[in-house]
Amino acid sequence: MTQPWIHHGALEELLALGNSGPGPPSVCVVSGGPGSGRTSLVRRFTEQVDLPVLWVDGGTYARSGHLDSAVDLAHSGLLPFLELTRPEELERILADPATADPHQVARDLWLVAQAYGDLERPRVCVVDDFDLLDLGSQEVVAYLLRRVSQLSTRVVLVTGASHVPAPLHGIPVVELRPLEVDQARALIESLIDEPVPYRVAEQIRRSTAGVPLAIASVVRRLTSSQLAGLDLLPHPLPLSEVSARRLLPRAGLSVGQRRLLAALAVEESLGVDEALVVLAGDSIDDAVAEGVVHSVNHVIAPVSPAQALAVWTATAELERLAIHRLLASATPDTGCERLHRALGGEDVGAHEVAESALAAYHSGELTHVALAVQLMGRALPKGSLPLAAMLFSDGYVETVRAVIEVSAGRPGHLDADEVAWLQAQVAMLTGLVSDSIPRVVAEPPPDEARRRAWAGSVFALVRAQVQRGDLDGAARTMQQAAVGLGAEIPDLQALAEVVRAEIALKRREDWAPAGLAEAARRWVALKPPGYEVNSSVVAFILLSVGQPALAAAVVEASQPSPAEGGLARVGHLASRIHVEMARCHYRAAESLLRRLDRVLPYQTTGTAHVWAPQVQVNAVLGPGDEGERLAWRFGGDGIFRLPPEARSDVAIALGHRALVEGDHERAAALLRQGLTTGGFLYDPKTAIVADLLEATRAAGGSADQAGALLQIHTSWLPDRGGVRFPALMARCQALTMAPDEADAAFATAAELTAEGYPVDLARTLLAHARMLRGVGRFGDAETLLERASAVFQGEGLSGWVTHVEMLRTTPPRGLGPLLTATERQIVQMALERRTNSEIAQSLYMSKRSVEQHLTRTFRKLGISRKSQLADLDLSFE
Description:
Elements: H1 10-18, E1 27-31, H2 38-48, E2 53-57, H3 68-76, H4 87-93, H5 102-116, E3 124-128, H6 135-149, E4 154-159, E5 173-175, H7 181-192, H8 198-208, H9 212-219, H10 224-227, H11 241-247, H12 255-267, E6 270-271, H13 272-279, H14 284-289, E7 293-296, E8 299-302, H15 305-314, H16 317-330, H17 335-343, H18 350-362, H19 366-375, H20 385-393, H21 397-407, H22 416-430, H23 448-467, H24 471-480, H25 490-506, H26 512-526, H27 533-544, H28 548-556, H29 566-582, H30 586-599, H31 608-621, H32 628-634, H33 644-661, H34 664-677, H35 685-698, H36 703-713, H37 725-735, H38 743-751, H39 758-774, H40 778-795, H41 798-809, H42 821-831, H43 836-843, H44 847-861
Parallel strand pairs: 1-4, 1-5, 2-3, 3-4
Antiparallel strand pairs: 6-8, 7-8
Helix pairs in contact: 1-2, 3-6, 5-6, 7-8, 7-9, 11-15, 12-15, 13-16, 16-17, 17-18, 17-19, 18-19, 20-22, 21-22, 22-23, 23-24, 23-25, 24-25, 25-26, 27-28, 27-29, 28-29, 29-30, 29-31, 30-31, 31-32, 31-33, 33-34, 34-35, 35-36, 35-37, 37-38, 37-39, 38-39, 39-40, 40-41, 42-44, 43-44
């Protein structure tokens, strides 16, 4: 398998330096630390070079004495330029290696090689782990390889150090640097063949410093839920024992240095005083000088975090307990100290551990959160709802599911109402029927803080019931909670009115669109800052009733703080994306979608409302702007695990894309499918109906067929009061008319286009032009297409520009039905190259009559002479 950790361009660079083709060869150095993929890169290089390969493993000849490695190599017979030399010559040159001058030894060996060695045969010589040779031997081998490279042998030197040793200075270097986050993400995804969230790749990369071997080892030992960002990553990250051995520092470490590296696998960095406690008498300066750690601004961190993980993996369990106790003594009177005491085996209460975890969460130390949750077995004690809420708010859904399972009904653990809140939130977030939902607690708590949490549980439960199509159950839940949602807390009462209007909207009650808008206005005026998922949901539903301006106001009034977690930021970004989509601002939506790829805290199929706009943005902006990674991240067969409404969002998005691409039959089928169920959150009904009618007519559907579809799908239009509605409905009406009757209706649709919606005008012009082309009015259609194309170009919608150009350049098809029976006969004879006189004689009419029929025919077909008839695809069946 191709190793994805080899950097883009590294192999090409090596091939260029190694010069596998004709011309003078060269010496090259591949530089990279343990686990960087340097050996894999060189092996790939040798596979692509049509030359014999000699591979010398520097680790086999690693010696500590001066020139000992050179002595062993010379006597091994491996080096191609020494393999035919006489043993007595080598004995003379290397008679006293301890006192020999490496430069003189190298020159003498080169003279012998010239006299006796095989220097003409081309080959690739690889010295792997060059840095493990003793320093004197490095100088000898480097000199010999420089000289032999001047002849015909291609030579590659591989150094296992992160820097180039002094004997190799001046030689071209292919440097394998640690992977950046995006490269690490690509590596992880190539190993598991699944998308991973940015933050998962970021956490793994930070803990391994981008060492490919460490990343690959960690990924193979994590669960799918952890890699999907649904479950907390363990820390220290789990390396395999084999990988740990390969990543361990080759130089010997003192006991204190091993303890320090193991501690830095847990803490990632320590202050100087803390590091001294862990070193237990060893010197920090020595650890820095030996390349174990580095010190910046009195902060001690490992030179190689992957090596710190390797040391931790190789550390016995009792020693790990001792390290935690040392860390506890090094950090007194802090939450971390209590956590390390517990991890060190002391009897620390679950409440203290939970408090430590919450404090760690607020300070951004997920390392300690993961350790604390694991230590408690995910059974959170009573009063730990804030910790569970933080876990949920950052998208750790599997962790929260486990907390619910192990905590529910256990004395001393989360209360029933706390578990119910978590259950309702998870069920609302995922939309999956498999997630259980709690019963509603009719009696709310007396104090305001707990009442707000209780109300959040009620609202989440109601929305979960709505997602599952249980509208009666949702209405009953709101009725049972009516007393608790009374006037004591005005913003909760206002939000309750919004939720009741949501239910009425799903029930298609006439008052719901206007009532929802009015309730949302009241709620926005009253709402305090806080957890903003409600704001995102309200914004989506306001878009469904054609209120993008009000939805934008809700979004602007709901800026989530970093402390609110990833889900709040995702909801905020997603609602902003849909607002821009509703305004036809596709460039702005694209920019937000690219930001969302980094913010999204977890990978799951419950994101159709994000995947759908990505598909549409990709379509209208054109192939050059496709966000393939993000589209892939939200796609996949798993989308069909979602409720029907979410699948409808996907069908509508795919239908819109097919319409842009000109596949009108597929577009019509997908849009009908999507309209049957309705959208999951954002359901721009009238715009979708207009797309359906346009696709139907473009696919050859009749005016009657379009009229029937309009009647079916406009029985309930929640966006009837929206600013775009008059123009969209006028376009729909025009699309149900015969071509010779539709001009006035299309003109009306164009005049009614709302200010600030130029794309709606361009779509109306395009639909009108397509209908005109269908009846042969190509000149009129061309004028409209020019105007539409100018608007699309101004908005940067390359997909629609391409659509227009394809329409303008594609010869008209199926124009035969536009002609009368007599006109068809005349055209058929003209295609047989018969003259006007011959046609007149055959049809018993005057030549002038034939010419008049041809003039009318040319006007219908958009041509000017008979020779152009052959270019048209005319069907007279």
